[in-house]
Write a structure and sequence with these properties.
This protein is an alpha/beta fold and about 350 residues long. The chain has helices spanning about 80-85, 130-135, 140-150, 155-170, 175-180, 190-200, 220-235, 245-250, 270-275, 280-285, 325-330; strands at about 35-50, 55-65, 70-75, 95-105, 105, 125, 205-210, 240-245, 255-260, 265-270, 335-340, 340-345. Helix 3 (about 140-150) crosses helix 4 (about 155-170). Its main location: membrane.
């Protein structure tokens, strides 16, 4: 069982569809996506109900992920990255979801509870950040891998063979013997490989990796990224990498979604983004990253503090921290506009060179 799946609303199956979702169905929506698109998110909003008024955690997010594409979702803590990723699998019953989420042509938000198994694990696998909360500490890791397959109808014998093979593929030495080990008996880097194994055991088409290098030293973190890159190529996986580390983005991703206060503010190919960031927030994030191709006396930091979801200001949420903010920024939410191969949510995108950027 995937961590968090027991948290979904027990009455989803009998309830009428939530506002903003489609009627419950597992029918393919092939006409809505091209053959290269694995995930299509349209106007996704996520609300946390409160006694008086709901707090909007994610506000009208739209993006696509192509098959075999490696996409990074970046932003400071509290920007809505993990909430967005978990919404793709409907993992939190306390949150109200609206919009559309198509995964391999299946509308996820309208699926009845009993059919979510066709998405979780099989189409999307999620490697959670904390191994100690995503893995059972009193069950051998091998048994957890086997159980995930058995509930899908695989025999225990076949499940064991596949689990050993996967651990070995991910670089866990002596995989057969390590099947009997518990999570606390693995080093940090090996624990992360086991977490990846749990996410991959049902052979999904999209892997969500939530901060996979957190708390690892630089050398081990790069090893984990190399394993992730290798297994993605070998299995022809799409990857959604959630991180706040722009250095990790540069070494792994092909495309970057920059998120601030629950909204996408920039969407670009990684090389183009690092060469010429357009949104002031993206520019600030990159200014704080050491670069081998540039020399600066002192790294800059994004001024001010991130905006809490319940305290999002009118207009552009970034305007209190932006030195270039004007009256329109303070009063009108900027739409996410397309400029060639990029999308940018900034009223002054043209002035900042968006029309000339790749």
């Amino acid at each position: 069982m995937m961590p968090g799946t027991d948290m979904i609303e027990s009455n989803t199956e009998n309830a009428s569809p939530r506002a903003g979702t489609l009627p419950a169905t597992d029918a393919r929506c092939a006409s809505d996506v091209d053959s290269d698109t694995l995930v299509k998110v349209e106007g996704l909003s996520v609300d946390l109900p409160r006694r008086r008024e709901a707090t909007r955690l994610v506000d009208g997010v739209s993006f696509t992920i192509k098959r075999n594409e490696k996409v990074a979702l970046v932003g400071e803590s509290g920007s809505g990255k993990s909430v967005t990723a978990r919404a793709l699998m409907r993992l939190n019953p306390k949150l109200r979801l609206a919009g559309r989420v198509l995964v391999d042509g299946i509308e996820v938000l309208g699926l009845p509870e009993r059919k979510l198994g066709s998405v979780r694990g099989k189409r999307i696998g999620m490697a959670f950040q904390d191994a100690f909360t995503s893995l059972d500490p009193i069950m051998p890791v091998g048994e957890q891998l086997i159980e995930a397959l058995v509930v899908q109808g695989v025999s225990r014998g076949e499940a064991r063979v596949r689990a050993v093979r996967l651990l070995a593929e991910l670089g866990v030495s002596h995989a057969e013997g390590r099947m009997k080990a518990y999570v606390h008996e693995f080093s940090g880097g090996m624990r992360q490989r086991v977490v990846l194994a749990m996410a991959l055991i049902c052979e999904p088409r999209l892997l969500i990796a939530d901060e996979p290098t957190t708390a690892l030293d630089v050398r081990i973190a790069q090893q984990v990224l190399d394993v992730l890159d290798d297994v993605a190529a070998r299995r022809e996986l799409a990857v959604l990498l959630i991180t706040h580390d722009m250095g990790v983005v540069a070494s792994f991703a092909e495309r970057v979604l920059v998120m601030y206060s629950g909204r996408i503010v920039e969407d670009a190919q990684v090389d183009a983004l690092f060469e010429r960031p357009i949104h002031p927030y993206t520019e600030g994030l990159l200014a704080a990253v050491p670069r081998v191709d540039r020399t600066v006396e002192r790294l800059a930091a994004v001024q001010g503090s991130p905006v809490a979801p319940g305290e999002r200001p009118a207009g552009c949420a970034f305007h209190p921290r932006c030195a270039a903010a004007t009256d329109v920024c303070r009063g009108v939410v900027p739409p996410l506009r397309t400029f060639g191969a990029r999308r940018i949510a900034c009223h002054h995108a043209e002035e900042r060179g968006a029309s000339d950027a790749v």
